[in-house]
Structures are given as structure tokens and as C-alpha cells.
Sequence to fold (299 residues):
Amino acid sequence: MSRYARHLPPLETLIAFEAVGRNGSFTRAATELYLTQSAVSKQIRALEDSLGVALFERQARGIRLTAAGAAFYAEVGVALERLQGAATRIRAAHQSNSVSVLCTHAVAQFWLFPHLLSFNRAHPAITVNLHASNEIDESRVADHDFGILYGAGRWSSLSAELLFPEIVYPLASARLQTAPVGTPAEVAALPLIELDASAWNCIDWRDWFRHFGLEHIPAEDAPTFNQVTLAFKAIEQGLGVGLGWEFMARDGIARGELKRVGAFAFVTGNADYLVHPRHKPLSAAAATFRDWLLGQTPA
Fold:
């Protein structure tokens, strides 16, 4: 028997574990994986049995990684990304009409995916392979045709085209009753949803208030999330007022499901850019995708 088959857990259990760890929920992971919650729970139990250690603590209000689970999650995420990157490179090398794009989960879900539906209708012969990861930087783009990177637009190895600027404002569910606010200082008195961005490059309420000359101390009982997408889901569910990125909030506001809280916004000066390696010529399919996507972006 192969040493991998003998010592490694089944791949599907690792994929389920990564999804549960990232989402912090069996239910959200099941939705993402198109599985039932019981199927995901069964895969996690099988993985824990294989490793002989508990990976999650089951609590009344949800789950969290154990110390062993957190350590394993860090390794599994890297391993799966490398495996996916290798598969993407091999696939792209042998499919002239395929394009691979790397971006964050938030950009993939709220901005790029709706565009891909339109692109597919316009160019059905071109396949776009989307790889979502929050562990994204300049070096990782080399494994793909394109990346969507956040920053000031200057990367030594990448060509960059502006997609959308970073605009952040207080956001709430349209169902949530909030007192009128006329100044940024009045936002601090509202029930705020906190974003813990300590592990990655993202603004939080401290940064937002500091832009307006104010200091912010989070309430001890404030709901706190370590991912933009999770905090956004909490906003949608009416848990409080959170930071809303324009590219994520625009459609919900237009549908009347979300509302801005106050008329002030933090325009950070950073933006998201479509990037690709300077040394790597674009295929005809990749050039078509770039030109089409930039054509959908307001000047």
C-alpha cells in the first residue's frame, strides 16, 4: 500500500476541514461545498478519528478550532493551495481557452462572480477558473493568468489595471432600527460589529474612526469576526452596524436590503487591481478576458 494512502487522511476530509475552519461553521461550509451539514460533520469526525485528536470544540453558540486544530488548519490550507495551484498550472498549460484568476474570497463572491456569469454568456468558449484565497500576494500571482490584488497599484513583477477604489462606510441591514447619525462620532454609540483584521491587510473600525480624527475602543461584548465575509453576513442578519466595502454593499443597497448609516465614507486611496506577470505573455483567451473585464469597469 502507498505510504500516502496509509498515513494521509482522505482528501475530501481535508477539504471539508479547511472549509469549516475558514467559515467557522458547519452550516456555511456545507453550503459552500454543496453538501448536507450531516455529511460535513461525518467527514470531520472521520478526520478526527484518523488523526486521533479533536480538531474543533463544540460550543452552545458555535464551534472553534482547538489548539491542535488551529495548527493543522495552517498546514492544510497551505497544502491545498499548493495542490490547487499545481492543478491550475497543468490545466492552463493544456487548455488554450482557459483563464485562471486568483483573488480573495470577498472579491470572488461579491464582485468577480457576477461578472463571470456575464462573461460566460458573451464568451462561452472560454473557461475561467477562479481560485479564491485570502493568502494572496504578489508572488502567488505567478501561478495564474491574473490576480486581483489590493494595494496602491505598484508591484515590481506585475502589470496592474485599476478595477475599483476602496470605499468603506458604516452599513446595516435595512431591517435594523438605527438612530439618525450626523457625524462619525455618533456612529460609535451604535451597536458595532467588530472586524479582527490583525492577521491580514485590512482596515477595521480603529482605522475608520482614526481617519475622522477619532479613537475607537471596541466594546467587550461586541460580536467580532476575523473575515470580511463573515462580518458582512452578520450585517445582513441585522446583528449590528459593520464596515461596508462599496464593492460588496452596492447591490444590497440597490435592492433595499442594506442601508448606509450616515453619509460619510473613508476613501482610503488604495484599490483593487487586475494584475498579471509582466514576463508572461497573455494568451488570446486571457487578453479577451482582460479587455472584457476592464470594459465592464467604470472609468
